[in-house]
Amino acid sequence: MTLEQTTTGSLETYEGLLAAISVADGAPVTDPATDEVIAHAPIATPADLDAAVAAARAAQPAWEALGHARRSEILVGAADAVDRSAAALAELISREQGKPLNGPGSRFEAGGVSAWLRTAAATELSEETLLDEPRATIAYRAVGLVGAIGPWNWPALIAAWQLAPALRMGNAVIMKPSEHTPLSVLAVGAILNQVLPAGVLTVLSGDRDLGVALTGHDAFGKLMFTGSTRTGKAIVAASAANLPRLTLELGGNDPGIVLPDVDAQAIAQDLFWGAFINTGQTCAALKRLYVHDDVYDDVVEALRAVAAQVPMGYGVDESSALGPLTTADQLAIVDRLVEDAKAGGARVVLGGEPDRAAAGNFYPTTLVADIDAHAPLVVEEQFGPALPIVRYSDLDEVIGLANGLDVGLGASVWSADAARAREIAARIQAGTVWINSHGGVHPMVPFGGIKGSGYGLEFGVEGLKAVAVPHVING
Hints:
Keywords: Oxidoreductase. This is Phenylacetaldehyde dehydrogenase. Helices cover 40% and strands 19% of the residues. By secondary structure, the chain is an alpha/beta fold. Helix 1 (14-21) crosses helix 4 (86-97), helix 1 (14-21) crosses helix 7 (182-192) and helix 10 (264-276) crosses helix 11 (296-307).
């Protein structure tokens, strides 16, 4: 089943949006807070993929021929459509993925879809003159067809990160959402297809077999993937015969280094949200915190005081600030890692005791102190609401620990001395290093990882170039 143009106005309520994207007989999608089935998602086949490819091939040349200015106007209209459906989309995200409506939650995510569309539309990427004599220029053209596979943690927002620049550059896009959160991305497709020409954007929901078919298909000049390092490696192997360009935003285990000159109370709130945004289910969240011995106890206590006040509950409850984990498998990973830390002698400052009989995938906000720097909770990506806090005294040693894993998505340095923090940031192996914050992204600031966290850049001018091919004219 593919989603094509729908009737304007029918997608501005939760019930109307859900009716437009769900089927009577398909893959069940459950609310992670209650375990209740909220809808059934279509299950696309390789034949559906071939049909979508044929439609995209037919539509893409005319879409590219419209030119940047006209395509940008259409993308602004698509952003307007998202704004009209924002409340419905936010409720759907909360019910399917689990994040709360408020704070950096589903309303924030729905707004981000619109923001990324508008930024892609407004970003300039003009022909550049490289030499005056003899004249040499470089411009960027559409790849043709872009295939995109998204994750379950920020399903609608990351779909926008992928599709907005690709469409802006004149490509046609075929997207496969995670099988855990297909509805949110199907909804984005339905909303945008009220405005876009038919065939330019297709969302196909399905299982891993569909993902394998997409990554191995010879139609795509560009593949984009956000997800685990293991799956990223499989995509590289599966696509090698066709040599598509790749953008891979893969797993992370972001370190934060707190220097001894900080005011613990002043940084505690930002430390907390750097780690626990989306209940810790964010690739570039703060996942291991290294705190200097001089301020260790103060930072741990300040974090505990903040964390204890942040309510966790059902996503559509207006009072919730944190929600459940999206999948039972992820809950099991977090539970295993915390139990291992306990057995190893680490001190649980807060949380660590889930209600194993309750419905939903809830794990309490958990802070684990006095933990060995090489414990599994530190060196494995937990992707959930459990933060290990490691004590250190030697700066060179802790930078070595921060750089010692085969990941490099993000990192942060916390200090009252901005110049000193930048010196340390320059020594950290990560695609982005934040100072006195963690995990914030901006649609004009390039974002991407190194090492096992993937390669390629998204956002801003560099993100537009990544979904295009360079064309040099010399002479």
